[in-house]
Amino acid sequence: MDWVVSTATLQLIFTMQIIETVYAMRDWSERERREDRRIALVPTMGFLHEGHLSLVRDAKKRADRVVVSIFINPIQFAPGEDFAAYPRDFERDCQLLEIDKTDIVFHPAVAAMYPDGAETYVEVEKLSRPLCGATRPGHFRGVATAVAKLFNVIRPHVAIFGQKDYQQLQVIRKMVRDLGMEVEILGHPIVREADGLAMSSRNAYLTPDERRAAVCLCRSLCKAERLVRRGETSAQSLLSLVRAELAKEPLAHVEYVKLCDSETLIEIETIHRTALLALAVRFGKARLIDNRVLTR
Prior knowledge:
single chain, 296 residues
């Protein structure tokens, strides 16, 4: 049996296991399934924060065994994006996961996930086009392909994703439905800092001034939500309010602000039931996303 432990953790004593090969991960999963144990997966790209850890704790409530994957997926980054600079700290990640008594950290190399000559991709066409898909072509094809591979290797009964990446969550749900995958997909509420900023690994890119300015994302969403609670249903009114709030911060460079159907992600003019208010804003090197599901 081929078990490989990262050298970054040799100085530490873990109760959890670190697996780096596809074969060892499959072997572990098959043994757990034969024992009728329920497996939960939390897919991540590492550089963990409290948002990730809240997913792990949720997973522990829903399964007998919890696997956290740490894989910075190169094919979801476009040329010129921050793949090389994406923050990494595997040893710290493992320390945090051991505190929360994670069973397995799956940490495959790129070559393990994409063998030489690999040319097969998974694409959820319509849901991948709007919002982040419009400015990051190929991003969700990369996400769907990597997640499909993780599901195939780990064979979880349930997988948990954060709702901050709402479009990603919808893409994965659609992929699972369309391909008949036997895994339950659950969304976990956005975890925020005390001032409202959604937790994100890319927050590490922010300067102190940018960090203070970034609170405008949550603030604008909260104002829109209060307006809907008072009866406003017009997309034009809500989007104007959000854009005006974001415009108060000179460091904020808006990529998009959209009001969409919460399932299809098609832009709407009026809220009839529920809608997704989503935005992407750049602060220096950091591209931050946030959203709010609005209910009439």
